[in-house]
Write a structure and sequence with these properties.
YqgU_beta-prop; four-stranded antiparallel β-sheet; 366 residues; 9% helix; mainly beta; globular
């Protein structure tokens, strides 16, 4: 029960933090010169869509997927931001709230709100062909696609009454398997191994990370007292807090030897109750680049009113680069090549990482 409470506390804190950041940063504006605007305008086609709900994700380096609401249906639309070509690839009778693509964008996981508080979970391919669908009575769902075997993944189901369940699935077999005994917030370490947080005694969002082998049920400690974890084919990332120096540290380790390869730090934001803020981040293995945000200075989370820096970091070359100096902290979703990133609570802003230009890509006024 304590583990479920910690998960709920973590989600509530992140929601509150986003609301505070949104209010505090309303006065910040990313100013662009006329020349910059013309450059972006000439290469990017704005999405003109009055019924748009949200830009969801990327299908390839130039194509995004967004949802739009029409009468009692929700359409999933692909849109090429360079050519302006758009196509309806899927129509749902229920409102689609989430779209998550597999590692190579071959499959799309859809979450929709069904009747009688049921959640409809569907997997389609890029053509919109339905490969699997089921309904679950859950409060929240997260998906972790297997980056090593694209057809496989894990669903973390938040069932209510402080109960959770993590269920493997296989697109080729069109089925869910028996739940495995791990906590939500699961990441893949290898084709058949996952890692997850396991909390000890006390209310602390720092936790030990355990690795679990799905085939034989073997479990062992992987890392101690971390705030975040990601993995790639040959390395893994740990987020750790250095409270004395008021820093959040991003550590990149060799997967086989566990030796530290490189690291960088950002100023730490801490709540009055002792919880540490973790920024939105995305690690692109293909480009070997981490995208994340950094506060201007260490402070109390609820008193910090400045903007953030959008930064990239290459762990193999140990190079950190500031892309934007004054941005709002919002979710970030980058294209497969990492050239473009979607930003904003509805992913309505587009940044060209190389050119460091930011612009709105949505026009949805009626």
């Amino acid at each position: 029960m304590k583990k479920a409470i910690l998960l709920l506390l973590f989600l509530l804190i992140m929601t509150a933090c986003n609301q505070l950041e949104r209010r505090a940063l309303m006065h910040h504006d990313n100013t662009m010169s006329l020349e910059d605007k013309q450059k972006m305008k000439s290469s990017i086609k704005t999405i003109v869509e009055p019924d748009l709900v949200q830009v969801q994700t990327w299908l390839d380096d130039q194509t995004v997927v967004y949802t739009r609401s029409l009468y009692e249906e929700t359409e999933l639309v692909s849109y090429n931001i360079v050519t302006g070509k758009k196509e309806v690839i899927y129509i749902s009778q229920e409102p689609i709230s989430k779209v998550v693509t597999s590692t190579n964008q071959t499959y799309l996981f859809l979450e929709a709100t069904g009747k009688q508080n049921q959640t409809v979970l569907t997997i389609i391919n890029q053509k919109g062909e339905e490969l699997y669908s089921t309904e679950k009575h859950v409060q929240k769902v997260t998906v972790a696609w297997n980056p090593f075997v694209e057809e496989k993944g894990l669903l973390s189901l938040y069932l209510g009454a402080q109960q959770t369940k993590v269920v493997p699935f296989d697109v080729n077999q069109s089925k869910l398997f028996e739940a495995i005994p791990v906590n939500p917030y699961v990441r893949w370490l290898s084709p058949s191994q996952v890692v997850y947080f396991e909390w000890g005694e006390g209310m602390n969002l720092q936790a030990d990370v355990y690795q679990y082998t799905i085939q034989n049920g073997k479990k062992q400690v992987h890392s101690h007292q971390v705030n975040g974890f990601e993995a790639s084919v040959d390395s893994y990332l740990l987020l750790k807090v250095n409270a004395e120096q008021e820093q959040m540290q991003f550590q990149f380790h060799d997967k086989e030897t566990k030796k530290l390869q490189s690291s960088f730090t950002i100023p730490m934001l801490q709540s009055n109750s002792g919880y540490y803020w973790t920024p939105s981040y995305e690690w692109h293995e293909k480009t070997n680049t981490l995208y994340t945000y950094a506060p201007k200075y260490a402070a109390s989370l609820f008193e910090y009113e400045e903007s953030y820096k959008l930064i990239t970091y290459n762990p193999k070359e140990d190079i950190k680069r500031v892309i934007q100096n004054n941005v709002e902290h919002t979710p970030i979703k980058c294209s497969p090549s990492g050239k473009y990133c979607l930003m904003g609570y509805q992913s309505t802003k587009l940044i060209d990482v190389d050119e460091q230009h930011v612009r709105q890509i949505i026009y949805n006024e009626r």
